[in-house]
């Protein structure tokens, strides 16, 4: 009888030991170390986030889009590593895949995947990153920051992004007939429409502007027929850049042009005044400058 009791006790003890690690594995990760003080820098890692594709395929994102931008940034003194984001199954030329899907994948989910990638790669080590985003990509970045601020369970607890520059991002809802008409099952088109649940989620707890989190610069063009300049500037931010219609910069050229001088106006929160420059920097150069300065521009 005594021997039988001892066997039962040993078995119970073993089961208890087996349970403890499983419970411990569900504990939240410790908070990351604090980030270094903010400072002007051309050495931070930079994430490049592309926009929407009606074919759910970006092709080669490096040679086809971001390589010329990054090489120009290096000529302008940038030394931080490039991280080209992709989320469509057929996309190539990226070193930071956050999803393999179609335009049926919703933007909040893509925001959570981007946030976790930045957290796992840099935030948990106390390192800031910068982000340059084109078109819908800027909404993915907003979703990443919003989810963290809202403490949504699908997002990490912290996110160290110092600067964000968006080019032609529909921060307020533009007409999207060019890309979205006839696309059934496109959750991404639905998310970008006026009054969508996704847009309401972004607006319920605004996370942007110069006084919270990343320092945002919104870049738009009066010649952009896909995302009007008013939509590209449709969010509270610390800095705005407007390319005049006479510059003739369309939606794709916001990220494809890497040289030249173009008529523009710009606004910064610290002096609340618009300035005009008839020989202003190309949009990608303006975005690079926005990523360099942590506060001023």
UniProtKB/TrEMBL annotation:
This is DUF676 domain-containing protein. InterPro entries: AB_hydrolase_fold, DUF676_lipase-like. Residues 105-171 form the DUF676 domain. It comes from the Bacteria. Pfam families: DUF676. Residues 1-24 form the signal peptide. Keywords: Signal. The keyword Transferase does not apply. It comes from Actinomadura rudentiformis. The lineage of its organism: Bacteria, Bacillati, Actinomycetota, Actinomycetes, Streptosporangiales.
């Amino acid at each position: 009888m005594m021997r039988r009791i001892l066997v039962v006790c040993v078995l119970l003890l073993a089961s208890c030991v087996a349970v403890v690690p499983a419970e411990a594995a569900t504990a939240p990760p410790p908070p990351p170390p604090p980030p270094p003080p903010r400072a002007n820098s051309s050495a931070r890692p930079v994430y490049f986030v592309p926009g929407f594709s009606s074919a759910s395929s970006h092709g080669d994102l490096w040679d086809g889009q971001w390589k010329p931008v990054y090489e120009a940034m290096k000529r302008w003194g940038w030394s931080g590593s490039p991280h080209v984001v992709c989320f469509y199954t057929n996309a190539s030329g990226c070193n930071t895949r956050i999803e393999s899907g179609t335009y049926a994948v919703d933007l909040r989910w893509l925001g959570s995947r981007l946030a976790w990638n930045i957290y796992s790669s840099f935030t948990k080590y106390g390192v800031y990153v910068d982000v340059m985003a084109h078109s819908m990509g800027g909404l993915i970045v907003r979703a990443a920051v919003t989810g963290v601020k809202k403490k949504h369970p699908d997002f990490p607890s912290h996110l160290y992004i110092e600067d964000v520059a968006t080019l032609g991002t529909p921060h307020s809802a533009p007409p999207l007939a060019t890309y979205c008409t006839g696309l059934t099952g496109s959750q991404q088109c639905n998310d970008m429409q006026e009054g969508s649940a996704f847009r309401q989620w972004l607006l319920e707890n605004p996370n942007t502007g110069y006084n919270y989190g990343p320092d945002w610069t919104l870049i738009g063009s009066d010649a952009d027929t896909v995302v009007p300049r008013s939509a590209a500037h449709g969010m509270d931010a610390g800095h705005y850049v407007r390319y005049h219609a006479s510059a003739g910069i369309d939606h794709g050229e916001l990220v494809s042009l890497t040289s030249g001088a173009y008529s523009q106006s710009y606004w910064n929160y610290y002096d609340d005044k618009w300035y005009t420059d008839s020989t202003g920097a190309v949009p990608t150069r303006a975005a690079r400058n926005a990523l360099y300065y942590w506060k001023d521009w």
